Amino acid sequence: MSAREHLHYVDLIRVLTIGLVIGMHVLALAPVPPSVETGALIIVFHVSREVFFLLTAFVLTYSTGRRKTRWPSFWRKRYLFVVVPYLTWTVLYFFANGGPFDGGTFLRELLTGTARYHLYFLLVSMQIYLVFPLISMLLRRTGRYHGVLLAGCAAFQLLFTLAVQYDWGAGILSGWLHFPDALLPSYLGYILAGAIAGQHRERLVAWTRAHTRVVFAGCVAAVTLGVVVCLGQMFVLGQPPLAASMVWQPVIVVESVAIAWAFLALGLRWQERGLPGRRLVLSTSDASFGIYLIHPLVLQFALLAAAALGLVGYAQTVPVALVLLALVTGLMPLAYLVSGLVSVALRRTPASLALTGRARRRRPVPAQRREDLALAISPGGTR
Fold first, then answer.
1. Domain range for 152
2. pTM
3. Residue 54: in which H helix or E strand, if any?
4. Would you say residue 21 lies in a domain?
């Protein structure tokens, strides 16, 4: 069987989503009190989590679809590239947090993905890999009812976010609602929706190409709705900015799907225009997992440097909007660039697997060197 087609548009989607992740964490660490402006920005950037889960399921379905998958081999490969970096970065972030070593605290953070605020994603990824054979089987056996299944995904995700946001009583499930971040069922609707999208990739791509303007307009409408809802939560219900823009706001469900779809449309348009900047996009996409793992450490050093230079104190004396603008247009791309350069460099070292979640990238062998090697290993290999 021939190798599967490389989906170039997925590379651009991954690059854009990583940008949302870094932007979200930059805003969360802003050295100013949470404000209306902060909430309005976070309600948009907070979709990064959901877009990543949609993309993960989409790619897994594409890579395993239409052929017999040896699930033990699937698990062995997938877990190698997520468990090793998870353990490595849990240790690194535990010590980066400072303070004396506490075995109990370390074990708790290891089991809950809380050594740093982004490591929960790796725990959820492990759970996705574990149950993905069941998801594949579900898709095969419900082939005629995927529309109904999608509607169920949307209904479940909306009800779940409502339950979390408004602290519904749930009996024995209350623990799940209070600590939903690292548990796969919290994102089940997104996982199934992404898998269904991967199953119907060709039809989805064709429709998106034919209705690109509709997709972009829907994205603008969804983002506008998200900001309006966030402002309403603050001014009508009296919620503080961070609560009004938290990831479990029900409007995030609408925003996430709309933005993911817009990213797909952008990726397809980029591909149709000849992949401008292809090397940069592919290199960034290849380094994206490493960027995800590394960027909180980069932000930590950036904040320490800002404090040492007196910039944190200065931020308290200027309008919040200016601080946020500087963070989004300055610190966010800088953190992205530094994390990307570090990840690309690490990809060429023996520590690549542990620190970037990818196998070591070997330097390409020059053509003359390849010819010399071929001669050396051929029978009578001398000129």
1. 8-377
2. 0.91
3. helix 48-64
4. yes
